[in-house]
Amino acid sequence: MTGLRSGQLAGAAGVNPQTLRYYERRGLLARPPRTAGGHRLYPVEAVTTVRVIKAAQQLGFSLAEAAELQRAGRRSATGQADHGLADHVAVRLAAVESAITRLQKIADTLRAVLEAGCSDLAECVEQACCPLPCSSRSSA
After folding, report:
1. Whole-angstrom Cα distance, residue 116 to residue 30?
2. Would you tell me how many other CB atoms lie within 10 Å of the CB of residue 6?
3. Residue 54: C-alpha distances to residues 10, 64, 75, 77, 101 (Å)
4. SS3 readout for the chain
5. Global pTM?
6. How far apart (Å, rounded) are the C-alpha atoms in residues 125 and 85?
7. Cα 126 from chain centroid?
8. CA dihedral in degrees (116, 121, 122, 126; nearest 10)?
9. Shortest CA distance to 64 belongs to which of 98, 95, 23?
10. Are 56 and 65 in contact (CB under 8 A)?
11. Which of 5, 79, 102, 118 is spaced 20 to 30 Å from 30 by Cα?
């Protein structure tokens, strides 16, 4: 039997062996055959699989989404029409762009708070010139 033992795969993919077992339980990584001594023996291609899962996570995809991306890739590789990757990426990109817009508004507001010289937020929110987004201000 040839292949990589858990420690070798984990090292090559930049994860720990517990991550491999977790991915197996979640169905992201196929359970490998075992050697006569009981050691898992992964195919060399498993390095790519684990790296792709980690890359998907770094792009903000959940493990469930990473699994779907893998399934979409397998369907495409077999010649079946599947736009799953493009669809998933488009949805993720829209979410990231929305988050960037929201975070930019927060950053702009924080800059305005600094520029206004606010020293006490409770006092500041009562002022008409306060840059903080408050639903109501005291009209007294």
Report:
1. 58
2. 18
3. 12, 12, 21, 21, 26
4. CCCECHHHHHHHHCCCHHHHHHHHHHCCCCCCCECCCCCECECCCHHHHHHHHHHHHHCCCCHHHHHHHHHHHHHHHCCCCCCHHHHHHHHHHHHHHHHHHHHHHHHHHHHHHHHHCCCCHHHHCCCCCCCCCCCCCCCC
5. 0.69
6. 46
7. 40
8. 30
9. 23
10. yes
11. 79
Give me the amino acid identity at 122.
A
Residues listed for the chain: 140
Give the list of residues 6+ apart from residue 3 with CB closer than 8 angstroms, or none: 32, 41, 42, 43, 44
| pLDDT digit string, tens, across residues 1-48 | 689 999 999 999 999 999 999 999 999 999 999 999 999 999 999 999
Cα-based torsion angle of the residue sequence 16, 55, 45, 17 in order, rounded to the nearest 10 degrees: 10
What are the tokens at 95?
């979410």
- Name the CA dihedral angle for 31, 35, 41, 43, rounded to a multiple of 10 degrees: -90
